[in-house]
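Quick question about two entries, pasted in order.
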Amino acid sequence: MSTSSNTSSRDAILGRIRKSLGRGAGEAAPVSVTERLSSPKANPVVPKRAQLAHPKQVELFEEMAKSVNATVAMVVSDNDIPREVARFLADHNLPARIKTSPDSAVSGLPWSDTALEVSTGIAGPEDAVSVTPSFSGVAETGSLMLRSGVGTPYTLNMLPDTHIVVLKASDIVGTYEEVWARLREKEGHGNMPRTFLWVTGPSRTGDIEQTIQLGAHGPRRLHIVLVDDTKENK
């Protein structure tokens, strides 16, 4: 389809929406809509189990992540991450070959301290293990929020059978609402990532005879390397 055809279809759809709202073409959005977009208000937070002091939120995150079949290992610094990745792969008899995000938070780690074969970029069918950063973690459910972008290709979150995610303890918050607030603050108005992914444990399905199967639509293993950087921030 040509660009002009796409534009015409878009204009037609937007025109029907404007008509249903009783607005004409080129008419500015109501002030209430503009204010809501520029200063979004948080929704009610329910349940309240994650409204804790931050150290307790970190503990709750780990508890909830493990409850949905993720594994979690705490390290004290970024330099410990490669050794933890190597340990996890060896303990599970997995290939000593990984594909990392281009993001320097992961690709810039001292991987040469290990015997792992490391490459960086978009994941392909041959990549069995990926290592990526996480934007944030949610204590309420043990969920991870992963952003797409040049430094964080989406395929690394979905294609490899084993997904290893690096999360800073200081990036753990209590609820989903807090993640959205942090994202708006970091990215600025109108600069949201093209795609983001909420991950709560390994991929799973119960479609077949109501029996849970891991790895149905994505990784069958999720290992979270939690970096205890909170002491540095005190």
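Here is the second entry:
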Amino acid sequence: MNLRKDALVGAARVIYLFDELLKQDQTIPTVGTVGYIENFPNSRNSISDRVTFTVDLRDILPERRDLFEQKLYEIIAETVEEYQLDYSISVDTNSEPKYCADWIKDILKDELQQMDQVPYELMSGPFHDALMMAEISPFGMIFVRCKDGLSHHPNEYASIDDITTGTNLLYKAVLKIL
């Protein structure tokens, strides 16, 4: 066992330590997700030669995100030294946070309150249409409540009442803006 250079064990350690690092201070909104792992040769009785994984790191403050990115690099460097592994890092996306327009958020809050609903504000870290639209237009986002808070998950479920509330809010906000 002490002669092995197991890339999967190294990757698992990096992923675990990074997750633990991000959980240390629950007062900050920094989030990190490893959503993709490719293991080679991916065989039940072979030592992993190569592992590729992605890290999606988001924060509303670029400086804090950058600090956690540097800490991730330190965890990687320490792990590869300890396990005698090789590594490379490539950054494919590093976008600045985008913020919903205050005037749109105000309209959404007002309309939601008129619908006898309690408005909540969430930090999304959008990496979808809103990120691209922010380059050309002010934007706002409406989140529909999901059962048990599960989103982007196979068990995601939103009731017809919550979907109706979100749809009505969008309709009312568009009328107000137009």
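Reply: The radius of gyration is 21 Å. The mean pLDDT is 92. Hope that helps.
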